[in-house]
Amino acid sequence: MLDSKASPTTNVPVLDNGRWTSSATTRWGDVYNPSQGTVIARVPLCTADEAAGVVAAANSALEEWSATPVIERARLMFRYRELLERNLNDLARLITREHGKTLAESRAEIRRGIEVVEFACGIPSLIMGRTAPNLATNIDADIERHPVGVCLGITPFNFPAMVPMWMFPVAIVCGNTFILKPSEKVPLTAVRIGELLTEAGCPPGVFNIVHGDRECVDALINHPSVAAVSFVGSTPVAQSIYQTGTQAGKRVQAAGGAKNHFVIMPDADLKIAVKALAEAAFGCAGQRCMASSIAIAVGPIGDELVEGLCDYATKMRVGPTEDTEEVDMGPVIRRSEQERIASYLDIAQGEGATVALDGRAEFEGDGFLLRPSVIDNVRPEMRVATEEIFGPVLSVIRAQNLDEAIAFNKHSRFGNGASIYTSNGFAAREFQRRSPAGMIGINVGVPAPMAWLPFTGWNQSFYGDLHIQGEEAIDFYTRKKVTMSRWFHPHGDTAGDSIWNSAPSKKT
Ligand code: NAD
């Protein structure tokens, strides 16, 4: 069993047909503790043959699992939910250890994941079909939902528990079998949530885990037995997986990167807006697809906003996150990410913006730490405004009015989320209607994806038709069957007669 103190020699196992096995690959990656900058485990970069092995396991479990009554499939999730609740704190420590986010952030992500498990417990109601009686004379039509088959989930590093749990609870209760290919940067949490699902009674082959990079992913996506692919990660990979998957005839939902705008109107309560904005920008060290990375100050409030933000961010406690609740922001995921994120401060200055708060700081130890940064006087065409930084760097753009703020938002090629802080209902309504993003916050800093609603990313933040979570997830993980039925009267055309009264007497 993996615990939150996985030792430096831990080789991360594969879950193949209900058994935890060691990979035979010759290629391995390092798993880090980002708070300390130390290696805590080795993750196999599995071969195409190993990928094919787990697909075979998932395929052989499919017939029996899809024929298992949906109520029993849902009961697996009721048991799983209890185990997740019981193990929540240990699981949070494990996420914090391999990801670096604060313990409070780790607990919050597990909570969001548990909500999807709770949603999946209700699938017996959600998966029901519909009937059109007597659609034509004596013909009834009905629609049933059937599982799609073997489903694949490829997930990013930034939510090691929640993003996998966006997918497999729904897929499995819909009657599919599932293969998870977690991020090779955070595989320990995936293994632990797999252990708990096995403990809850998940039959062998119904849920499998394989690790790796492009070689493994390509083998999985192109395998003829894989029917559906759910992906969450960066936009270039989302685009490529969508193309490869759909060309291979699979249904694909691929959520990509983001650049979320946060508009502050002059009538907003600035103190409340600053706090919400700082939390939206610097929470999880800015490594959230719903992080606000551009603040648009409307009207005369720009200077006051920047001052408030710098003041708030300067007071944030930044440091290693393990074994403490006394930290507001932890490290980023890798040394290379720390350097890449910090480089945007020079890029911004080079393009004419002003670094109002420089987060490059000295820390004790080797953790991948940065403090929050605020960049002022940004223009919409600058690289800091157009590229996903995915770190604790907030850019401030000044706009004269709401129309200009919305126009700046339209400049973005992404469309995950956008928020407005205002006390004016008309401004809120205009923003809601005209913003080119799928998730809108009105006086809500992070309009977070929730289990009961689809996560409706737009533009280059999403490729596909059916989004992850909510009813769209039920549509994605099922395929429909329409049946037309006509039954004939046993004695020919005697419409109106009771079949039983008009039964001919038996010949003796
Ligand atoms: P990533 O795209 O690098 O990796 C995501 C997954 O794809 C990982 O499992 C990785 O192993 C795999 N992968 C990487 N390169 C691949 C390739 N060339 N071929 C096949 N598979 C490949 O993303 P990341 O760095 O782990 O996560 C951060 C990104 O995820 C950010 O862009 C963030 O905005 C995005 N994200 C989006 C959402 C959303 O719902 N829209 C949610 C969370 C994160």
Rg over CA atoms, rounded to whole Å, is: 26 Å
Hetero groups = nicotinamide-adenine-dinucleotide
CATH class of the largest domain: Alpha Beta
Please describe the biggest sheet, giving its number of strands, its sense, and whether it closes into a barrel.
7 strands, mixed
The largest sheet has its strands arranged as: 15-16-17-14-13-18-19
CATH superfamily of the largest domain: Aldehyde Dehydrogenase, Chain A, domain 1
Strand fraction: 15-25%
Poorly predicted ranges (pLDDT <50, ≥5 residues)? Answer: none
Number of helices: 16
Question: How many independent structural domains?
Answer: 2
Supply the helix-strand structural class.
alpha/beta
Task: Measure the end-to-end span.
Answer: 73 Å
CATH fold-level assignment of the largest domain: Aldehyde Dehydrogenase, Chain A, domain 1
Please describe what this structure looks like:
With about 500 residues, the chain is of the alpha/beta class. It folds into two domains: about 15-255 and about 455-485, Aldehyde Dehydrogenase, Chain A, domain 1 (3-Layer(aba) Sandwich), CATH 3.40.605.10; about 260-415 and about 415-440, Aldehyde Dehydrogenase, Chain A, domain 2. About 40% of the residues lie in helices and about 20% in strands. It is built from 16 helices and 21 strands. It has helices spanning about 50-65, 70-85, 90-100, 105-120, 125, 160-175, 185-200, 215-220, 235-245, 270-280, 300-315, 335-350, 385, 400-410, 425-435, 470-475, and strands spanning about 10, 15, 20, 30-35, 40-45, 130-135, 140-145, 150-155, 175-180, 205-210, 225-230, 250-255, 260-265, 290-300, 355, 375, 395-400, 415-420, 440, 460-465, 480-485. Strands 15-16-17-14-13-18-19 form a seven-stranded mixed beta sheet, with helices on both faces. A six-stranded mixed beta sheet has the order 10-9-8-11-12-20, with helices on both faces. The chain is globular. It binds nicotinamide-adenine-dinucleotide. Nicotinamide-adenine-dinucleotide binds near residues 154, 255 and 416.
